Task: structure prediction
Amino acid sequence: MPAPIATTFPDVRRTDAGTILVSSWIVPSPDVQSRAADLVIGEWERQERPDAMLSLTAFLSEDGGEVLNYAQWTDDDAHREWVRTRRPAAIGRVDEAVPGIERPGVVRYALHRSYVPQESAGRRPGVLVTPTFETEGPQSQRALSDAVIEMLERIRPAGLLGAHFHASKDGRRVLNYAEWEDMPAWERFAEDEGSIELRTVVGALDGVTPGGARLGVQRYFPYKSLENIPAP
Result:
């Protein structure tokens, strides 16, 4: 059954999303980046989808080398059943059309806390920035999220429409899903004193390490979003 396809950001704070699945597809060249995203959205659009699958959004990285898949499900068991019974065929069709995609693996998250300034109401984000941190358990995950939100509430970066802190279910990672109005707003923040202060705050936390390699700070643009079940 066809599902509505949009080019907007998903509703990150929808209350029925019991699990959030984030996976990176590293593509062999920039010229196949959008093709890979079209294929994954197309696979979901044409198949019979379980009600536990709420939404899927494909983001394209600024450098052309990655598709970031952000999926909301009601629970992990339903997703694992889909992986067991239907994922191999769907991924096989994608790989046949676009060979050479690397998949480091899916990370299962739960939304911990969000910073959403009142003045962001009605404004549409244009860029997703994903600072990611390695952590040593739930306590360090909470400490990181709380410390960064406290700082954001104090300095209120211009152009930051929302920062949504996702804690991985294994306790080993925190993803800051940061919605920025546009790239210049993010770049101004990255170069000003607030960014320096943020790194200082994070560096002082026990059990927290800024993500390296493909973790770190990546920048993405929304490409296509499929909403299977409307948000409550």
In short: The radius of gyration is 17 Å. The chain has a mean pLDDT of 93.
